[in-house]
Specification:
This protein has about 210 residues and is an alpha/beta fold. It has one domain: Rossmann fold (3-Layer(aba) Sandwich). The protein contains 6 helices and 7 strands, in the order βαββαβααβαβαβ. The longest helix is centred in the middle third of the chain and has 21 residues. The chain starts with a strand and ends in an 8-residue tail after the last strand. Pfam families: adh_short.
């Protein structure tokens, strides 16, 4: 199986790459700066995406849109959440997955039963709104909406799409006090990706298999 993972230099993305490679799969990983075993890619740069797509072997059986930012963590309503932060975070967390899917559609269409997994968050659930982190929450809500609409449009082509909450994970983004380590999260996510098909396309699930409210 050929798998493409964006944001694969650390955290969840790096663990996804490691586990899939250990299982014998072919993995194309990206990060903004590239690095050992990774291709350089800014998922918001259409020129870079075109160059990247030209380098990616066909078919692509699974695309995991993992690249993301959480720039507004800990910011306050009175003086945080600058316009520039809104623009950059929405670009990466929402436009990024869409543009990546768009760029790799030929490779996905070449794979029977191709799948797209968009890493979202329970913080994107509109029924779970405790306040704060306005930009991150809005971006992940939009990412879930994106996944569900892509699922509708791509289902006739046999391509399944799901949105996934990785849990609160001990990464640079999640912090050392988070609930689970990356290995636990990724083991669960891989099981969810394996279960994804056209019958469950449009799902919004946690790494542990539980369905999440929209």
């Amino acid at each position: 199986m050929h798998i493409v993972i964006t944001g694969a230099s650390r955290g969840i993305g790096a663990e996804l790459k490691a586990q899939y490679e250990a299982a014998g799969h072919s993995v194309t990983g990206t990060s903004t700066r590239g690095g050992e075993g990774l291709l350089a890619l800014d998922v918001t740069d259409t020129a870079q995406l075109a160059d990247f797509a030209a380098k990616v072997a066909s078919p692509v059986d699974l695309l995991i849109c993992n690249a993301g930012l959480y720039l507004d963590k800990g910011q306050h309503l009175d003086d945080g959440f600058a316009a520039e932060t809104w623009a950059r975070q929405m670009q990466v967390n929402v436009a990024g997955p869409f543009l990546t899917v768009q760029a790799l559609l030929p490779q996905l269409r070449a794979a029977p039963g191709a799948k797209i997994a968009i890493i979202a968050s329970a913080m994107g659930s509109q029924q779970r709104a405790p306040g704060g982190s306005y930009i991150y929450r809005a971006s992940k809500a939009a990412a879930v909406n994106l996944a569900r609409n892509l699922a509708v449009d791509l289902k006739p082509e046999g391509i399944a799409v799901g949105a996934y909450h990785p849990g609160w994970v001990q990464t640079d983004m999640g912090g050392a006090g988070a609930d689970i380590d990356a290995r636990t999260s990724v083991t669960g996510l891989i099981a969810r990706f394996e279960a994804l098909g056209t019958g469950t396309s449009g799902c919004f699930e946690s790494y542990d298999g539980s369905a999440l409210p929209l």
